[in-house]
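User: When convenient, might I ask for sequence and C-alpha cells for a protein?

AI:
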Amino acid sequence: MPPTPLRDLFQNNLQDDQELPAKQKQVLQAALDLFAAQGFDNTTTKQIATLANVSEGTVYKRFKTKEQLLTAVLKPIITDVTPQMASEFKRVITDRPFESISDLIITIGKDRLQFVWDNQKELRILLGEILKQTQPVKEFTQLITTTIVPAVYHQFDQLKERNKLINWDNERIFQYIISVLLGYGARIVIFSSPIELEQTLTETAEFFERGLVPNK
C-alpha cells in the first residue's frame, strides 16, 4: 500500500477537529495548498481567501497575520500528522521479517522516497519553516528516536542472528544507511530532481550488501 499523502493526512486531521469552524478549516487547507505550490512569501491572504471560497475578512478574523496562519498550518502537522506518518512507516518496517539487508533497504527506500517525491512541495515549505525553530526539530527527532529507530534496530538484530548482517553497532549501521537515503530525499525536496527509484535503490542495496554482510 502506498504511503498516505501528507495533504490527505492534514485534511483528515482538520475534519476531526470539532472546535475549528468549517470556514477556518477551508482557510487552513487552502493555505497549505498555496504555501506548498508557490511558497510562503509568494502567497497572499487574498489568494488564500479566494481558494478557500471565503472573504479575506474571514481569514483575518482568526489569523491576524500571514505568519500566524503559517503557524496554524504547521502546528497540526508537527503534533498530529507527523506521528501518523511515523506510525504508517513503522508498519512497513514491522510488517514482516526481511530476508537480507538489501531487502530492508529497498523496502524502506521505496516507501520513504516515494513519499518524499509525492509530497515534495509540502515538505519543502514544512522543512523550510521547521528548521528555523528549535522545538519542532527536537520533537521530530524524539519521534523518530522512539518510534522508527527501535523498529529498524529490531530488524538489524534479526538479520545478525541469521548471519545476514555484520555484527557492528546498530547505530553505526543505521547512520550509514540513513545518510545515503536522506541524501536522495534532499535531492528531491531541494532540487525537485527525479531519481530512477528502482535502479537507484538496487545499486544502493548492492553497495551496502557488499559492505555490511559477513564474509562466508
